[in-house]
Structures are given as structure tokens and as C-alpha cells.
Design goal:
Two copies of one chain form a homodimer. The first copy, chain A, contains 18 helices and 15 strands. The first copy, chain A, is an alpha/beta fold and 457 residues long. In chain A, helix 6 runs parallel beside helix 8 and helix 11 packs across helix 12.
């Protein structure tokens, strides 16, 4: 097809970023500080270090360093699966008959099947550096648990994963991938923690929730002699590590002599989207270039489009710090959706602040239209996308069709965060016409927002 | 680590091979001709065209063209997932403490999860070129069926896959991947063919076999108005298409200024191994360079190491042409193994002939030692390998340990043909210590070889 732009652009290993980009350094108005759940006062380094690794906390609180060096051992690990390709979606463009140029940054070429590995290996490294022996975490869909198991195996850490019980039972293969990498995987709620025992007593037969699994993992981290809790999204440190996606994308576009017009990503906790757009947002914040940014969320869990910008708890167990963010309320239960990675009631504090400043657009899309886009993408571009990533595909296709209608040849880039190999139940239901859409009513939304904590700073 | 050789070497898209390499052109003694199962006489182009696509038959019979051009449309499709990386296994070398240099050519970065796509897209293209509307095939483990579903979706062909019933029931996710790409997937034996009906009547409740699924797929191809049957291994045409693996490997090594000493691949039907080694074998046959080649097979299905070089049927239904090959007999039932892709009683005719000439070594390895190598590889190099590919990993590690014992720094390269994401039942059993080894007795082998057809040419 087009001979000038290759299908896939790979940077060389020498061009792999040597530092992560911290977008907060370029924001005039910073995200609001995290609050301690016991005092509702801003968290100190010390407060946070009880739960998280020291260096991760330092990065979490760092609002001024524009770049933070990537440690050599992390960069070496990155070389096993990075730089990831920036792909020109020639076949999708042809299928749509659009004059738009569509690119995607593909993060699925690793065994975790997603971008999660970018932060998992960094956090595992800092845990090892601190002299820890154990790390704990929770996993719902399983991608973060897999990524952290891989990172822990690499650095010789023992990894304890609390996996939401229904997911543990429905996705035994995800569980076995983690076990292959040496992790202990416990269905949550379990009898290994106080909070797990209490929930099992109060709700016999419960199949668990992410909120409960987080609380169990945090409790486990605090009670083990030499352990910390690691989290896979939402936090500033995670957005920071994910900036490697955007830095590579920026470098690849410069190499190609191409300037994108629209950048699109799915948003659950917000870290992959922030990772993709951060360096471009930096250009925009510094007045060097202008871009459109679109965050895509599921209509079943619309924190940006229908939530409220307020302080809220990050977990249902209320053991983690509070953040000011777009939230549906920590009690909000999203209607069933096959994009498990996007079923979070809140959103990254940084992304929330940028959205609040009008620098990012948001769009909510329905599940069936997402799977329609996923299948079209799979059949034309080859790769079977994760349901989460397919939210971005849906809007990228919509934007390309808008370009077609308007006769514009804009350059669109979206984040293809992962593959759908472990999501075949969802694909099967879609193929069989058994998938529906469930969108919360205004009453559902109001109920979720009714109990936000009262915070006075 | 070593700054001179990168972790991953990618060719540019411009360096993607423009022609497949046909090793038979460089063989002085050619593989024996295929025989028609009805007459036991050498097959003509016409005989084979009843079942296979015209151009595929031409390639099957072509013993003289050294190179056969890759059609533009196939080359464009290749660009979606090729050139594949040649990876330096620095982390595995470090874990083994070996002076050997270990490389692997990784074919798993595509949704079929394996090298199978290299031939599937070529065969689908030739089917489309011939004006066909439908293609049929069988699948056991599911990788070939997935690859052909993807190729068929791309060229707008209807793909009919007969999936061995026990596999259909145990691997519903593989089935749903194929359906996502638009394929019809039928558990075999089915009631859609005469042979399927007969087998269902004779063996009520049977869970099927590859031999039966082949026969059903061939019958379906012959009875549909505008269809042919496509096969994913064993045949010369498939080895030809897979030569893209070896050509890229050869080009990458030349770029790096490295000459490998030992090339290793797993061998079920033999096509991935032939694909990897063919261009290097060509150098050896032409007297330009010397290499060691090692074919690795499961101890449970040891066609090269314990079989006989003789004419045999390629399928248990005896509807496909006969080949002269290393075989355990078409009635041989391998003991249970989790490397479904290596449970074939015979072997590529070309590989068999090269092995018979002493140009290739063969080694049989036991399942538990294969999974031990697989887990070590996963934890050090990140990627979770397919059980089939892990046979090659086992022997690569053994060779690297030999180098360590002998103080030699040889260069070892093996084919990492695919990923193990759909093989987690096997990994789970290994992790739980529930995996065993079953090796056929001499009596089992003798029984399989007792009924080889008598062929007089």
C-alpha cells in the first residue's frame, strides 16, 4: 500500500526512553493531594510508606520533576518486549474507506497481554531495591495480577495475589498463568485475612469484589514481615511508568515526520490513557502543539461523563487514601460488563484534573457497539483486541467515519492496550447474539453519589 | 548487558523476503513422490487438484525452483506481524551460567499464537485466486484452525473447520476465536459428512481423532461446489511457506555478523523446523557452510527416533496421498501428551529424507522435562511458551549446558513457534505435580509398524 509509512514502526533499543515523563510537572494547576482515610488530611510520605514501597511513594508525591530516570534493570526488562510497535492500520482504513490515517500503539505483545507490565516491573524493582521479600496485590480481570507475577518472578520476589472469587472460578487459566510465574493466588474473600473472614461470615457464599480483594491485599502486606502492597492503575506513579507508551509514540511519530491530530484511549483507572497522552499533553500544556485527547469509558461505568469531581475513597473497604477524582461513588456497582478492566468507580486524579480543565474530552460507549468494532478490527487488522482496548477502537472508527463524512484526512492514534485471548466468553456471547447493554439510570447514578465523604481541607 | 547485540533484532519491512526458499531444489536425492491412495502410483497434478488448490499442488510438486515469489497480497498481510524478532536470550544465558549464546526466532506474536499463519494466509490467497468461495480443514490443538480462520476472514472466504470433538469440548475458547474470525466450527465426528455419520454409528460417544477430522474436512471439500481442503503441516508446500522464518533468521544473523552453530526446532509434522532450517540447510547442501540441525520430538510420539522410513498413509481415514516418511504407522495412537501439535504418526517427507541422509539429528524428550524447561524460560525470558515449542527450549538448554561443561561459546538458535495461552490446563497440571511421562513400549512401536502398506514402485 503506502510505501512511505511502514505498517509497523519500531524504535531501536537505543531509542527506548531513558526516563519516564511526569506530566504533573507541566500542569499549572496540580491534581489535589491524596488524603489519609483515617484523618482526611493530606498524606505524608511516611503515611503512604506503611502500604506502598518507598520509591513509589516518592514518585507518587513528586509534582515537580519533569523526568524520572528509568532504572537500568527495568530498562533491560523493557527490552524483552519493548519498544512496542506503532502500527499504521492500513487494512482498517481500507475497510472503512476513510481518508483518515489511523495508527495504534500496540501494548499486547507480552505474556501479561497488556500494558500492565510497564508498571509491574518498575514496582517490583523498587520493592526488591528496598530489600522486601514479598509483594501483595489484587486482581479482577487478571491482567495486572499476571503482570505483577511476571515482574516478581524476574526479581525473585514472592507475589501474593488476591483474585476476586468469581473471576478465580471463571478464569482458571488466568490463575494458572500467575501460578506458572510462581505467584500464590488466593480467591477473595478468603480466610487468610481478618477482613476476608469477616466478609465471609457476613455474606456467606459471596463471590467477592475488587474492593474486598484490595482490602485483603493491603492487610496481607501490612501483616507480612517484609512486604508492601502494589497497585496497577489510578495512582500517579502508575501513570508515570505508563508514560513509556507515549514517549515511544512521540518518538516514532517524529521519526515518521507525522503529527497526530486526535489521541484516543480507553479509561478505567486512567493509567494507560495517561501513559499514551502524557508527552503530547505536555506539548499542549507548554503551548508547543495542539491535540485532541479522547478518553473512552463504558456506558455501564461512566465516571467521567456522568460522575462528580470530588474527594472519594479509592476502594470499597476504605483502607486506601482518598483522591479527588471523577467518581460514581465507592459504593457504585456497575452493571455487568465484559470489560472487567474498566469497571472502576473512580479515575486517575491527574486525568480527572486535566478533564476538569477541559483539556481532555470523554465519551461513553455501549458494550455491543464496542464488540462490533472489536470484531471488525480483528478481521481486518488480524489482532484480537481486549474488550477494554476495543472501547478505543470504537471511537477511533467513529472518528475515522466522521473524517470520511467531512472529507478530512486527519491522523488518529489510539492505544491498543492488550489482547483478548482470555476474554473468549465475551466474544462467544457477542457472536451468538446474546450480549446486551445495561446503562445505569439517573437514579442509579444519584444513589452512588449520595454518600460521598465530606471533606474540608 | 551486551551492548553490541540487541535483545531483539527486527528486519525492516523492506527486508521482508520476497520469495520463499524451496530446499528440494538443492537436494541431490529428492524426497520420494507422493502416491495416490487408490492406485499406490505417484500422484499427478490432476489427482491432487481434486482435493487441494491448483497453485498449492504446483508448489507441492515443484522440486526444481529454488525460489518461489511471495504474492504481493500475502507479503502485505505478513507485514501485519512480520518480520518477527530474532531474540537474544540474555536472561536465560545468565540463569544457566553458560558461555553459549542463545537466540530464538519468535513466531508467537500474532493472534493464531504460532507460525501457522505463515502458510494459512498463503493457502487462503491461492484459494481466493482460484475463484473458490469455501475452504475446509481440520484442527486438533486449534492453532492451525485459528490461523486459517484469520486468513479466510482476510480474503473473504468461508472457512469450515472440523475440530476434534474432545478438543472442541475442552477448548471452547479456541473455538470461539475461530468463530470470531467468521469460521464455522463443527465438532468431529459430526453428522454433516458420510464418514462422520459412519463413525458416530460405529463408535457411539466417540470423542474423535485427527484422522477422522481430516477425512471429514476432505469429504466436505469435495462435496461443496467451490471448495478445497487446506492442510497446515507435513506437506512440501507448507514447509515452503514456512521458509520465511528461516530466511528472516538468516538475514538477521548476517546483519549481526553472527554465524549460528546449532539450529533446533520441535517436529510434529515438521513444517516449522523445515521453515527455520531450510535456508541454512541450503548452505550446507551447497557446501557453503556447516551447521548442526536438531529435530526435537516428544518421547510419546517418536517418529524419527523410533519409527521406520517407509511409505505410509498420512491420515487414519486413508483418503490423503501416501508419503515416504519416518512413521510410527497410521494406526499408532500416541500416549496422552499436552503437546497436541506434535502427536502425529508421520513426518514431512523432505525432513524425513534429510534425516535419512544424516543431515539432521533427532532427539526425543519427555513431557515433564519439557515443562521444566518451559517454566524456566517463562520466568527468565518473560514469554510463556507453547508446549510444542518448549521441546525445542528443552534441547536448547541441554546444548547450552553441554557448552558450559565443555567451556565452549557456541551460538545456538531455536524456533519459539508459539505461545501457551491456550495450554494452561497443562501448565496447571505441571505446577500441581500431576503430570507424568508415558513412553511407548517396544511392543507398542512394533504394533504400529506392523500394518504399513506394501508399496512397489
Amino acid at each position: 500500500m503506502n510505501a512511505e509509512i511502514p505498517y509497523k514502526t519500531y524504535l531501536t533499543e537505543a531509542e527506548l526512553p531513558t526516563a519516564w515523563y511526569n506530566v504533573r510537572a507541566d500542569m499549572k494547576k496540580k491534581p489535589a493531594p491524596m488524603l489519609d482515610p483515617r484523618t482526611l488530611k493530606p498524606c505524608s510520605q511516611q503515611d503512604l510508606e506503611r502500604v506502598f514501597c518507598r520509591e513509589c511513594v516518592r514518585q507518587e508525591l513528586d509534582e515537580t520533576s519533569q523526568f524520572i530516570p528509568i532504572p537500568g534493570a527495568v530498562r533491560d526488562f523493557y527490552k524483552m518486549y519493548r519498544p512496542s510497535p506503532l502500527v499504521r492500520a492500513y487494512f482498517l482504513e481500507r475497510a472503512l474507506g476513510t481518508p483518515a490515517k489511523i495508527y495504534y500503539k500496540f501494548e499486547g505483545n507480552n505474556t501479561s497481554g497488556s500494558h500492565k507490565l510497564n508498571s509491574a516491573i518498575a514496582q517490583a524493582y523498587y520493592a526488591k531495591e528496598q530489600g522486601l521479600t514479598d509483594v501483595t496485590t489484587e486482581t479482577g480481570a487478571g491482567q495486572w495480577g499476571t503482570a505483577l507475577s511476571m515482574g516478581s518472578a524476574f526479581f525473585g520476589l514472592k507475589c501474593h495475589v488476591y483474585m476476586v472469587k468469581c473471576s478465580y472460578e471463571q478464569k482458571p487459566f488466568r490463575r494458572d498463568v500467575m501460578r506458572t510465574y510462581g505467584a500464590d493466588v488466593t480467591p477473595s474473600p478468603s480466610m487468610t485475612t481478618e477482613i476476608g473472614k469477616r466478609i465471609n461470615e457476613e455474606h456467606p457464599g459471596t463471590t467477592g469484589s475488587l474492593g474486598c480483594a484490595i482490602s485483603e491485599a493491603v492487610e496481607r502486606a501490612i501483616t507480612l514481615p517484609n512486604a508492601r502492597y502494589l497497585l496497577g492503575s489510578v495512582l500517579n506513579q502508575v501513570c508515570l511508568h505508563q508514560s513509556v507508551i507515549g514517549l515511544e509514540t512521540q518518538a516514532a511519530f517524529r521519526k515518521l515526520g507525522v503529527k497526530p491530530d486526535v489521541l484516543i484511549g480507553c479509561a478505567g483507572g486512567g493509567s494507560n490513557l495517561m501513559g499514551l497522552i502524557a508527552p503530547f499533553m505536555g506539548e499542549k500544556l507548554r503551548g508547543e502543539n495542539d491535540y485532541r485527547f479522547i478518553a473512552v469509558e463504558p456506558a455501564s461505568c461512566p465516571s467521567l461523563t456522568r460522575g462528580k469531581y470530588a474527594y472519594d475513597f479509592c476502594d470499597t473497604g476504605r483502607v486506601c487514601p482518598l483522591q479527588k477524582m471523577y467518581t460514581l461513588g465507592s459504593d457504585f456497582i456497575p452493571s455487568p460488563s465484559h470489560a472487567g478492566g474498566l469497571r472502576y468507580h473512580g479515575m486517575s486524579a491527574t486525568l480527572s484534573e486535566l478533564y476538569d480543565q477541559g483539556l481532555v474530552e470523554a465519551r461513553a460507549v455501549e458494550q455491543t457497539s464496542v464488540f462490533e468494532a472489536a470484531v471488525q478490527f480483528a478481521r481486518t487488522e488480524g489482532t484480537l483486541p481486549a474488550p477494554e482496548s476495543s472501547h478505543a477502537i470504537r471511537v477511533a472508527i467513529d472518528e475515522a467515519l466522521r473524517c470520511k463524512a467531512e472529507g478530512r484526512s486527519e491522523t488518529i492514534v489510539f492505544g491498543l492496550t492488550g489482547t483478548g485471548y482470555f476474554d473468549m466468553v465475551a466474544y462467544g456471547r457477542y457472536i451468538d447474539g446474546e450480549m446486551g447493554d445495561t446503562i445505569p439510570t439517573d437514579e442509579d447514578i444519584a444513589a452512588g453519589l449520595a454518600h460521598l465523604p465530606e471533606v474540608k481541607l
